[in-house]
Amino acid sequence: MTRAKRQSRKLGWRFVFLAVALIFVFLALVRNTWVDVYYIPSESMEPLLLTGDRVLVSRTAFSHTPIERGDVVVFDGRGSFTPLTSGAGAFADGVVGAGQWLGLVPNNNIYVKRVLGVAGDTVKCCSADGLLEINGVPVTESYLYPGDEPSALPFEVTVPQGRLWLMGDHRNVSLDSRSLLGAPGGGLISTSKVIGSPSVTIWPLDRIHPILSDGSALSGR
Asked: Where is the Peptidase S26 domain (predicted)?
């Protein structure tokens, strides 16, 4: 009778472990193909996204439609915004990676910015009126952080095929394409580095809402 109970307990624990493993496999599949979670680590996209927000990122947002001006994108910054490094060691990297996967700590290689220029665009700042110019046309950016100017750093770039010019909405504190002018690549990010687009804020609870990025004036939509 005792042996039967022990075998029953072992089978029960095996079932629990198997169920947990299957759940993690399912979540990994979903997060690698459909939707992921991203921790907002900085003020660079305020007021749209606040420091500490957790957002769902749609990995399929650009599967059937091209990336357009005004879109907010999440992308891998390794090799451009952040250098390639060897890491802090297997164990430390594993712990940090687990926290990033759970959305508890920021991933310093992943960024979220707004697309200001796509292939063929010439982006310039600033016009005589102090506005951003896209293809010679001044644009009013309603999403900018209150009190920020379009750019304190003057620039003019023409975006080649397969690249994007990206900037944060809180321009005064944003590390973005402007910060890489003069570096290899000139601040232009490959479209292949784009992971997806933030769609919903899921944390904190009082900020649960769809993410509506008002870039219609830039894209003509």
From this structure: 17-203
Q: Using an 8 Å Cβ cutoff, are 118 and 164 in contact?
A: yes
Cα three-residue angle 96-98-103, rounded to 5 degrees: 95
CA dist 100 and 98 (Å) reads 5
Residues 124/137, Cβ–Cβ less than 8 Å? no
Catalytically active residues, by annotation:
44, 113
| Rounded-to-5 percentages of helix, strand, coil across the chain | 25, 25, 45
Predicted TM-score (pTM) of this structure: 0.79
pLDDT higher than threshold 50 for residue 124: yes
At residue 17, what are phi and psi to the nearest 5 degrees? Answer: -60, -40
Give the three-state DSSP class for 27. helix
What gap in Å lies between CA 83 and CA 156, rounded to an integer? 24
What number of CA atoms fall less than 13 Å from residue 47's CA on the CB side? Answer: 9
3-state secondary structure (DSSP) of residue 23: helix
* pLDDT tens string 69-85: 999 999 999 888 875 44
